[in-house]
Amino acid sequence: MNPRLTFATAGRVLRQVRGDHRTLALMIAVPCVLIGLLAWIFNGTPVFDKIGAPLLGVFPFVVMFLITSVATLRERSSGTLERLLSTPLGKGDFLGGYALAFGALAVVQALVATGFAIWVCGLDVAGPRWLLVVMAVVDAVLGTATGLFVSAFARTEFQAVQFMPAFVLPQFLLCGLLVPRNGLPRVLELASDVLPLSYAVDAMRTLTTQVDAAGDVGRDVAIVAAFAVGAIALGSLTLRRRTP
Amino acid sequence: MTSDESPAVVVDDLHVIRGSREVLPGISLSVPRGQVVGLLGPNGGGKTTLLRSIVGVQIIAGGTVTVLGEPAGSPSLRSRVGYVTQEASVYADLTVRANLNYFAALVGAPRSDVDRVIEVVDLGAEVDSRVDRLSGGQRSRVSLGAALVGSPELLILDEPTVALDPVLRRDLWALFRRLAEKGTTLLVSSHVMDEATRCDRLLLLREGRLLADDSPDGLLARTGAPNAEQAFFALIEAEAAA
After folding, report:
1. ipTM
2. Single pTM value for the model
3. Sign for the pseudo-dihedral over CA of B61, B64, B65, B67
């Protein structure tokens, strides 16, 4: 990996997103709208305090998954990826560039969404608030890495978009938001143990309920980060300089 | 310097299989340095596969491809070989300048080189336009420009003049000539036979086999044909008769 090439790639990706005002607006505004809706629906009940924070971890994962899978599919199908891999750019630079760019966008998204949830919707957070943002950014990088990986298996943008329900919704169902994970049938509980979103949601929940949450949350952050690194490694296997 | 005497590209007994079809069933050729070499032949004849093998992005089944003295696709070649695919492979949602800046960064070329290239591909008026707002011809010149930054020693161009109007085609061939005069080696594919006269050397490729490797004059003298297209037909008939 060459930091200069990684940063050049991250800059290029950010420049592409910056030119697309609507995507940028959706990325920032949609999580706030959903959080706002949720707070409104459960107005006067304790439910929002329970699921508001976990959802702050789910949104960046979903959004970055979608955007990255479509963006890298475009790179694959437009010939730019083949061209890039015929230059000195390394696979690590390509993946690192995307992770950096979307990680940076995730910081903005997480700051806005978390701020909105806490100050506008009145979300109660017992633990340190900055950890909410850290978790959200790690989730976003996980979404980026997973999206990059699965884009290798999509031939069209239609397929890429449908990987979202295929990859994300099962994790959403099993992550403990609907039924606590230890209340799931044994097989499903085991399945939820190997899915990254479970740890993201665990971390967010711990943060909202425990004052000294840093230790447990740190462990969950590390687990999700490890999943992200694993997905990036898998993604790099799908980038081939030589193709048939 | 003896290394400059060696050919820019040497292909030896190259076999490439795509799917169940052997696209290149053992082809050998060489491309001399500092020349404009035309790779001509009908569509589906293996031109793109051969070019991809030389760039080093094609999985090959056998044989060797040596580029600037090193195996094709070697890391050290990645900033010395420029490759322009048939489709304009640049970022449609970036401006011309942003595209060229990025590709310049990848090969370590200074920003000043981007200005030079913009001049060379004649996109001065469009530098701040997004690529998806440009015409097809302008877009393919952006793609060409992205390969020109950093002044690679070898340029591999896959059908760069396809779908361009006659004036642009003439300008582009004049540009190729100027680049060759400065020492760049160009391997340019085309299925338009009348572009043959603009090359120093011609490779005629049909169904994965090399029908001719000659200068344009040599080709006409050998076949007695009045132009490259007729020469090509004469070669096909001669092969069928043999």
Report:
1. 0.87
2. 0.89
3. positive
